[in-house]
Amino acid sequence: MATVLVAEDDPDHQRLIAGVISRLGHHVTVAGDGRAALLSAAHRVPDLVVADVDMPELDGLQLCRALREDPVLGAVPVVLVTAMALPDDRLQRDSGAAAVIRKPFTLHELSGALAPHLAAASAAADGPDAPAEQAGLDPEFVSALLRSIDSGVAVCDAAGRIILLNPVLRGFFGEDSAAVPLKEWAERFSLRHHDGSELHADDLPLLRALAGEVVEHAGLLATDREGRPRWLTINARPVRDHHGAVAGAVAAVHDVTAEYRSRIYQACKNEVLKALAESRSAAEARGKVVRTVGATLGWRYVRLWLVDPVTDRLRPEATYAGPDERPLPVPASMARGRGLAGLCWQRGELIWVPDIHADGAPILPEVVSATDCRAAGAVPVLSGEHVTGVMTFFSYDPQEPEPALALLLSGIAGSVGAHLEQHRADDLAQHLAAATDEYIALVGHELRTPLTSISAYTQLLAEAPELTGELREMAEVVDRNSRRLRYLVEQLLDLAALDAGHLGLNLGEVDLTSVVTAAVDAVREPAAGRRIAVEADLSPGVQLVGDADRLRQVADGLLDNAVKFSRDDSAVTVRLTGDPEAVVLTVSDTGIGLPGDDRAALFRRLYRGDNARHTGIPGNGLGLALCRAVVERHHGTITLSAHPPGGTTVTVRLPRHRG
Fold this sequence. Notes:
The chain is α+β, with helices and mostly antiparallel strands. It has a 6-stranded antiparallel beta sheet with strand order 7-6-11-10-9-8. A 5-stranded parallel beta sheet has the order 2-1-3-4-5, with helices on both faces. A 5-stranded antiparallel beta sheet has the order 13-12-16-15-14, sandwiched between helices. β22 and β23 (about 650-655) form a beta hairpin.
């Protein structure tokens, strides 16, 4: 039986804690604040102190420190009770407490939290040679309590003999595990550190505590009796007698497998997303994904199969094998419904195979005979609702269906499917763009030759003195339209070359203020014919590195558009500003405006907005596309926005210097 000092200023909580300890068969002394508790401990040294953190006179943390500084009371373990939001490990680190119990708690939770510390204190109070049954506890009550605790509890005496082992640990390690000497536990039960490295006998947390060490959050990797890996976290402390000598040790064992796997799964997801983002091709992405999944989750084999649209069969596209693993036999292709991958393809859902050697397991016989793996699984790779591939995996450890892992695999497969679909779309877009450029170049070449002949002969006709007035007018119409068509062809070819990167920029220091001023002067005359005022607000001496001719092309194009789409008796406003990093050119009109859906599309070649087509305003849909191409070649941006109360504002941002 242990003597326990309860320091709690709340009368209800004081009675509750004292009642639980008394029911466990221990003697209780109570104090209403920290100072009274310290005086009580000095009068009679307790085997255990249970103290509230928030108390008058002397709070629980101060009480704990005062006990630690006292040469007689320094070895007395303290359990803190608190409603504070500080992390448990910080409270324990700052105060040296053995444990922290959070408020609010139920009677069951309080009993479970105090039980291992009371058992250790009782063992120390009764001496190292007293068995558990002689420790003054009610055996039936203690047995029932230990059965109700979810965590494992182990207590040993000074000789290293286990005197208490609750049902959780006996169920995990076996009913006869209490009889196994602690020195043999690491080898007998194949215990390892969390990272899988070897655990030496003296590294066992209970033996470290028996040597006088306070062990917090020690990580162990164990295998349960079904062969499944379990990650454990252990807190262990020495139990000292009234003279300060180590009389035994107590350990609380927590199964943190779910939390550990959750961290591993999150790390796997992050690494997969990183691999996809950094891959420059679909083939590179496939290889990185299977390597990441296999290495992070500890699987020995991971294989990605993709559906061949020509043969309608699965073909292996990427494979990962763990270190020193002999390769598995891989068929050149897999039919729908055949083997693990084919069955997953057929069903379109995640498949678990806990035992690949079981009768009816959907694993090819040649694969089963070639591996010592125990479990396998497969997850479909989807594009929308269509299965485009399957990812299979094999593991030495038993792998039962697990919701968190299923969610991870489905998410990874979805990311892979989206990434592959994006690559296919990008490849298609590149081929389409290349084909479009080739077509434009071909058409441009084929048009230039007849246009040259048409223009030349039209000019010859116009110079003929015998040409009558009506025929001369017809010749002038032909000449005017041939020039317009030739201009359109030149713009198309120019735009295609800019987009393809075939045309270089003649870079140099450019006075953009002078360039825009010249463009404004050029547009004033046609604007004046419709009584459109061109108002310019240009900062002087705005300099940048660029191609002066191309930037003039942008200024001309934006101003021509603004005047063309403005109403008579209106105004066009041009502004040019700059800062040390960039320059901003805006051109605003009060014209017909543009629908919101058209804004992004207006920068595509040959596109004209609905309102422009229906008003009869002439245009070919190339002006803004050319401006966009030139601006982007200067590493700038061009955007459209509504200009209240009506009209449009075009904003061009250009860097002053090229990086």
